[in-house]
Structure formats: structure tokens, C-alpha cells
Design a protein that fits this description.
The structure is a single chain. This protein has about 300 residues and is an alpha/beta fold. The protein is about 25% helix and about 25% strand. The chain has two domains: about 200 residues, Formyl transferase, N-terminal domain (Rossmann fold), CATH 3.40.50; about 90 residues, Methionyl-tRNA Fmet Formyltransferase, Chain A, domain 2. The strands form three sheets. It has a seven-stranded mixed sheet. Strands 10, 11, 12, 13, 14 and 15 form a six-stranded antiparallel sheet that branches. It has a two-stranded antiparallel ribbon with strand order 3-4. A hairpin with a 5-residue loop joins β12 and β13. α5 packs antiparallel against α8. The longest helix is centred in the middle third of the chain and has 25 residues.
């Protein structure tokens, strides 16, 4: 077997760059990158390149940006690179004609310990559910999303106050290392595919896309659940509540279980150092906050310009 196979890498966001960088710096032959088309962003709607494209251009790796993955012209381009392996990290669902193309198959990196948390938002959902551990998995792609044969897994602990953004940054580097180990294991024949065993479908936790309804804080919930929601949605898209008819996003907070006589969602502050909201069984003390139309601020900075009686 070729000790340095031709690899096509598919990915779009910053999470994927770590794996692409690891492949490149490990000396693997990345013959092309497939990423999302440039999209208008910002006030000037200037076309923005994906994080993966930016890295690939710096390293002189050819870039393909198809609008449609079944487009005949794209398929011909893809075939012309004669890749033996495709590596997919944080990309869209591939049609069968694409993932079956390489002789050694297509490898996907997923941000959970499969089969748990299949879906688009595994990092967010694991934290929102209060998990104390998660992981990364490499597997062979097949038709149903996140169901292919497992190649390698690595467990990752989740800190009690860790946010999705903090876990994301750790996970992308651990995942990149797992991608390298996976390819090396396939090449030297030490790695065997293992089917995903689901003995009881009712025990499976899924990771569907995050919607606005997932982000609004329900102050009738226990403080532990609200705390997990806040850190699971930080820094994006952000958990929020409504305050004086404006959206108030909370990025960091800590819970305190305590009896009180307040209605859920009532706000209290000393006007200098702390601001808290009442929940079902205690308080949520806000640490970082962003009022609609304003900058994200630490709570002490926010309170300097805040009039609680306004």
C-alpha cells in the first residue's frame, strides 16, 4: 500500500483547519481541498473565504468550491486528482458518488464518542446536557449520517464550567491528532473498522442543529440546567433572555442553589460587581453579558454604565 497516499481534504470552518494543518505538517500528500463557496459577510457584504480555504491558499494547495456536490464538472475535477483517501472534517453531507470515489474510502472526524451525539451540534449538545465527558471519533462514511464503521475514538473530559468555545478549541487539536493516527493505522494495517453497535435506540443522545428556541433561557428551570445551557451555547449563538424589551445574551455565569421568594427571571444587582437572575431553585450570577446593540462586556464593566432603575 502507498505509504503516502493522495489525500483530498473536505472542510470549511476553523475546527477543520487543525486537521488540515496536521496532515500538511506531517508530510501527507494533500492534493486538493474542497470547501464552501465564498460568501458575502459584514456590513459591506465583502466576499469572505472559509478558514480552510485561507489556509490552503497559503500552502498552495488547490481549492475546489462547488455549489452542488453532484455537479458533473465538480465530479470530473474531483476524479482528476485520483485521491486514494478523502478526509472530511466539519463539512456538509456527501452524496454516495463522492464518498465512494477514493480506493481507500472517505474518513470523517466527528466531535463526540459515536454512536452518541450524532448530528450537527455535538459539542453544544453534550455541554447543554451536562455531560462530564465527550470525545472525538474517526469513522468511514456511509449513506446514513454519522453511522459508518468506527476507526478510532479518544475520550475528552469536560470541565464543570467549560464553554462550548473552550471545548471546541481543545477538541479540534485532539481530533487532528486522531486523524493522523487513523491514516497511519490504515496504511500500516493495524486499524480495523468496527460497526457502531446500538443495543437500545432509546439510550442514544442526538445532536441536532441549534435553533433560536434552544437559546432562550427558561427561568423556571433549575440553575444547573440553565448554567449548562449558557456554557453550551457560548460563544455562539449565545443563550439569551429578554430585558426591557431587548435581547440580553449571557456568555458566562455561575449558579447558586438557594431558596428565595422571587419570581423566576427577576433581576437583582448591587450596581457595581454582581447581577443575578432568579431561577427555580436559586440564582444565576452573570459574568459576561451583551445587551442588544451593545458590546460584549464583563459584568463589572457593564454595570458601570447601567441604571437598574431606568
Amino acid at each position: 500500500m502507498n505509504s503516502n497516499p493522495r489525500i483530498i481534504f473536505m472542510g470549511t470552518p476553523d475546527f477543520a483547519v487543525a486537521s488540515l494543518r496536521a496532515l500538511f505538517e506531517s508530510g501527507f500528500h494533500v492534493v486538493a481541498v474542497v470547501t464552501a463557496p465564498d460568501k458575502p459577510a459584514g456590513r459591506g457584504l465583502r466576499l469572505m473565504e472559509s478558514a480552510v480555504k485561507q489556509y490552503a491558499v497559503k500552502k498552495n494547495i488547490p481549492v475546489l468550491q462547488p455549489e452542488k456536490l453532484k455537479d458533473p464538472q465538480f465530479l470530473e475535477q474531483l476524479k482528476s486528482y485520483q485521491a486514494e483517501i478523502q478526509v472530511v472534517v466539519a463539512f456538509r453531507m456527501l452524496p454516495e458518488i463522492v464518498w465512494k470515489m477514493p480506493s481507500m474510502g472517505t474518513i470523517n472526524l466527528h466531535g463526540s464518542l459515536l454512536p452518541q451525539y450524532r448530528g450537527a451540534a455535538p459539542i453544544n449538545r453534550a455541554i447543554m446536557n451536562g455531560e462530564t465527558k465527550t470525545g472525538v471519533t474517526t469513522f468511514k462514511l456511509q449513506q446514513e449520517i454519522d453511522t459508518g464503521n468506527i476507526l478510532l475514538l479518544e475520550e475528552i473530559p469536560i470541565g464543570p464550567n467549560e464553554t462550548a468555545g473552550e471545548l471546541h478549541d481543545r477538541m479540534k487539536e485532539i481530533g487532528a491528532g486522531l486523524v493522523i493516527r487513523t491514516i497511519r493505522g490504515l496504511l500500516d494495517g493495524t486499524l480495523q473498522e468496527k460497526p457502531q453497535h446500538v443495543t437500545d435506540p432509546l439510550t442514544l443522545k442526538t445532536a441536532p442543529k441549534i435553533f433560536t428556541a434552544d437559546c432562550e433561557i427558561n427561568w423556571l428551570e433549575p440553575v444547573s440546567k440553565i448554567h449548562n445551557q449558557i456554557r453550551g451555547l457560548s460563544p455562539f449563538p449565545g443563550a439569551f433572555t429578554y430585558f426591557r424589551d431587548k435581547t440580553l445574551k449571557i456568555f458566562k455565569a455561575h449558579p447558586e442553589e438557594k431558596d428565595h421568594g422571587l419570581k423566576p427571571g427577576e433581576m437583582e444587582t448591587d450596581g457595581r460587581k454582581w447581577l443575578r437572575f432568579s431561577a427555580a431553585d436559586g440564582y444565576i450570577y452573570v459574568e459576561e453579558i451583551q445587551l442588544e446593540g451593545k458590546k460584549r462586556l464583563l459584568i463589572a464593566d457593564f454595570l458601570r454604565g447601567f441604571n437598574p432603575k431606568a
